[in-house]
Design goal:
This protein is 50% helix and 15% strand. Strand 4 (268-275) and strand 5 form a beta hairpin. By secondary structure, it is of the alpha+beta class. It has 2 domains: 3-181, Up-down Bundle (Butyryl-CoA Dehydrogenase, subunit A, domain 3), CATH 1.20.140.160; 191-307, Roll (Nuclear Transport Factor 2, Chain: A), CATH 3.10.450.50. It has a 6-stranded mixed sheet with strand order 2-1-6-5-4-3. The protein has helices at residues 3-10, 16-33, 36-52, 55-59, 64-88, 129-137, 140-151, 156-163, 167-181, 191-207, 210-216, 241-254; strands spanning 217-226, 238-239, 259-265, 268-275, 278-288, 291-298. Residues 133-181 form the RNA polymerase sigma factor 70 region 4 type domain. InterPro entries: ECF_Sigma-70_Domain, NTF2-like_dom_sf, RNA_pol_sigma70_r2, RNA_pol_sigma70_r4_t2, RNA_pol_sigma_r2, RNA_pol_sigma_r3/r4-like, WH-like_DNA-bd_sf.
C-alpha cells in the first residue's frame, strides 16, 4: 500500500472522493445504527477496507458508491448483532441520537427530492425519531432488510447477498418489519399542526404552566428521557399527561435559567433546551389526534456533541 493510501485511511476526509460520498454513507449508517458516532466509525471502517484494495482493483469497480454502501451495510449489520450487550449495560433509557440539519442526512425541504426513496416512507419520515425508535426494536436482519428495501430501494436479491439470507427470507424480514412498524412511525399530523403544538408546549413549559402542559398532552402520553447516567434524567418512561407535565415543570423549577427554543430535529418540528449558550437537551415529539402523544428528550451529552455551540 502506498503512503498516500495510508494517509487516506487515517484521514479519509482529506480525499475528495470521500467528501463526495460521505453524506450518502452517513445517511445510511445513521439509519442502521442510530447514533452519529457509530455511523462515523462504520464509515471510517468502510474507507479502511476501500483503500486496502489495490488501485487497479478499485478502478475496476464500476460503481464505487454501491461497493461502499454494501460494505458499510455489512459492517453495520455485524455491529447491530453485537450492540445488545452495550444496551444492556446502558444506564436508564436508551434513545437514538437526535440529528439536526437537512441535506447531509438525506432530508430535503423540497418535496420533489423525496421521489427517489420508495413509497413506504418519505425522506423525512425515514429519519423521524418515531421511526428510529421502532427501528431500534427490530432484529438486525429486519432493520437492514426494511431500510435497504423500503428506504433505499434495494432489491431483495441485493439484500440477500449483503446479509447472507435468501431473497425470500429478506422479503419476509421486510414484511415483519413493516408489521412491527404499523402506524407507530407514520406522521399523524401536518407539519403546521406539529409545529403549533410544539410552540404551545414551549410556551407552557417556559412559564411552568402545568395546566396548559396537561391540556397539550394525550391522556396516555409517554415521555422518555436519555441521560446515559451522565446527567439528570428519568430512568423509566413517564406515562400520562399529569406525570409528564409535573416532570417538565419540575425541570424549570430546578433550572430557572432554562431557555426553550424551537428547532428542527430529525427532519421534524422539535425543541431544544439551553442553559446560557449551551444546548443541554434536544426534544422530539409525535402528535396524535391533535395532542402530543410522545416526547423523547435527549440529555446525554455524548449524543449532543453535534448540537454544541461552536462545534
Amino acid at each position: 500500500m502506498t503512503s498516500t493510501n495510508r494517509e487516506l485511511i487515517g484521514h479519509p476526509s482529506d480525499d475528495p472522493e470521500f467528501r463526495k460520498d460521505e453524506a450518502a454513507l452517513m445517511a445510511l449508517g445513521y439509519r442502521l445504527l442510530g447514533t452519529v458516532a457509530d455511523a462515523q466509525d462504520a464509515v471510517q471502517e468502510t474507507y479502511v477496507r476501500w483503500y486496502s484494495l489495490g488501485r487497479e482493483e478499485r478502478q475496476g469497480i464500476s460503481v464505487p458508491l454501491a461497493w461502499k454502501r454494501t460494505t458499510l451495510t455489512r459492517i453495520c449489520f455485524d455491529r447491530l448483532k453485537s450492540s445488545q450487550y452495550k444496551r444492556e449495560v446502558y444506564v436508564g433509557e436508551w434513545l437514538p441520537e437526535p440529528v439536526q440539519g437537512g441535506e447531509f442526512w438525506g432530508l430535503a425541504s423540497n418535496p420533489a427530492a423525496n421521489a427517489g426513496l420508495g413509497t413506504s416512507e418519505s425522506i423525512s419520515e425515514s429519519i423521524s425519531m418515531a421511526l428510529m425508535i421502532v427501528l431500534d426494536k427490530m432484529t438486525p436482519p429486519e432493520r437492514v432488510s426494511f431500510i435497504l428495501h423500503d428506504v433505499f430501494q434495494y432489491t431483495f436479491e441485493e439484500i440477500a447477498e449483503i446479509i447472507g439470507r435468501t431473497p425470500q427470507a429478506c422479503r419476509q424480514l421486510a414484511f415483519a418489519a413493516r408489521k412491527r412498524l404499523g402506524d407507530r412511525a407514520r406522521r399523524q399530523s401536518t407539519w403546521e399542526e406539529h409545529a403549533r403544538l410544539n410552540e404551545a408546549f414551549r410556551a407552557a413549559w417556559q412559564t411552568g404552566n402545568v395546566t396548559a402542559l396537561i391540556a397539550l398532552l394525550d391522556g396516555d402520553a409517554e415521555a422518555i428521557t436519555d441521560g446515559g447516567g451522565k446527567t439528570a434524567a428519568a430512568t423509566e418512561p413517564l406515562i400520562g399527561s399529569h406525570a409528564i407535565a409535573e416532570f417538565f415543570a419540575g425541570i424549570l423549577a430546578r433550572q430557572p435559567d432554562l431557555q426553550v427554543e424551537i428547532a428542527t430535529v430529525n427532519g421534524e418540528p422539535g425543541l431544544i433546551g439551553m442553559a446560557g449558550d449551551q444546548i443541554i437537551s434536544v426534544i422530539s415529539t409525535s402528535v396524535r389526534n391533535g395532542v402530543i402523544h410522545n416526547i423523547w428528550a435527549m440529555r446525554n451529552p455524548d449524543k449532543l456533541r453535534a448540537w454544541f455551540k461552536g462545534d
